[in-house]
Amino acid sequence: MAAVDPDFKTSFCLDSYYVSDELGFILPEPLVELPPYYQPWMDVAVRVPDLVQSHELRSHIYKMPLLSSEFLQKHRELRLAHLALSVMTMGYVWQEGEKGTVEILPRNLAVPYWEVSQRLGFPPIFTHADGVLANWKKKDPQGPFDMENLELLVSLPGGDSVRGFFMVTLLVELAAVPALRSIPTVINGVRCGETEAVARALEVISQSIQDMTDTLKLMQGSRPYHICFMINSNFLKWKDNSSMPKGLIYEGVQAEPMEFSGGSAAQSSLLHCFDELLGVKHEEKSGAFLTRMRNYMPPAHKKLIQDISLQPSLRSFVQQQANEQLNQAFHLCVTKLLALRNYHINVVSRFITVPAARARQIRNQSQDLQCETISRAPIALEERGTGGSGIMIFLKTVRDKTKDAFLLEKSKDVNSETAQQFNNST
């Protein structure tokens, strides 16, 4: 047993980070209604897909009263308000596609959106915390937490495929809960030199990451064109965006336009936590993007990631121990994380890169379109992801840097065993 680290007086726990024992980063029991004063928001928010389709959303938003956020008192009220305002904002900006964007968000939407965002510590744009973590309810409150018993509170254009995209992502978050619960065990075990406890916790984390990958495979039933439109047109940001080169002016907030990145899987706190725990170090460009994405997370979750990064190095601890079980458990964790990232590349290729390229080909050929969704798929999406990254290059770089977390003696084995798998996804 290694020596106890005297610099840490108390055990590491998740109590102060708003992590649910049952749901992890998912917001428990999101509200489905706001106080009656805010009914004008909800009346529009729940109709966003239909109003975008009929090109009437902007006119409905113009008619909304300017409401104060002061009557939103509870955290879950603020989360639902932010979700509703986010969906309306995305629909307002992108109602006419990338060629019909706007430069100004009207005051009656912009001012309360800014106020709610400031109170939550969120940016005023649709985020992963909105669309996934706080956008669900059970059809049967006593029923299971699964695809058949879940539905969205509000949606975006794309029908069942959009629902499937959000729900699968939500279930991936749920699959990670055992891993999140095991992180304190790993950290405290490293502090106290409890080799066996660390190894057992790493085994739980490995299985949880495998469960995340298996859950992500549920995405296979979705229709790529609808997903492409939803996550890359409606989620498109006003940062690094050729359709909105000046950003967006939030009327009544400030006169200068502001730029924000759109919702992205990089805004999920899960992989950030695993990277910090396992010692995955990203290169300067991709690392800067991932760090910036932490500003789009709930502040408590961002703080958890930061605090994990300040703990004694798990990788160094494993290297210092002459313990085969610990070595194997650590190696398995990195292997599972690598496999998850590799599968994610395949998903992005299918649901973003390929459909976007196909949509552009159809447009260029001026064929008669059966689906307006395809005609409005953004041209820029062959190169850029929802958060603003060069998506395929970024994902492959992140994946490849994950391999560097392996212990030196495992590196050759990993490279030979998984080279073909990596090549198949490139």
From TrEMBL:
GO BP of this protein: 'de novo' NAD+ biosynthetic process from L-tryptophan; immune system process; L-tryptophan catabolic process to kynurenine
Record InterPro entries: Indolamine_dOase, Trp/Indoleamine_2_3_dOase-like
Keyword terms of this UniProt record: Dioxygenase, Heme, Immunity, Iron, Metal-binding, Oxidoreductase, Tryptophan catabolism
Residue stretches in coiled coil: none
Recorded superkingdom: Eukaryota
Residues bound to heme b: 344
UniProt xrefs under SUPFAM superfamilies: Indolic compounds 2,3-dioxygenase-like (SSF140959)
GO MF annotation: an example: metal ion binding
Gene3D superfamilies named in the record: 1.20.58.480
Short name of any one Pfam family annotated for the protein: IDO
Example of a GO cellular component annotation carried by this entry: cytoplasm
Similarity comment text for this entry: Belongs to the indoleamine 2,3-dioxygenase family.
Name assigned to this protein: Indoleamine 2,3-dioxygenase 2-like
Species this protein is from: Echeneis naucrates (Live sharksucker)
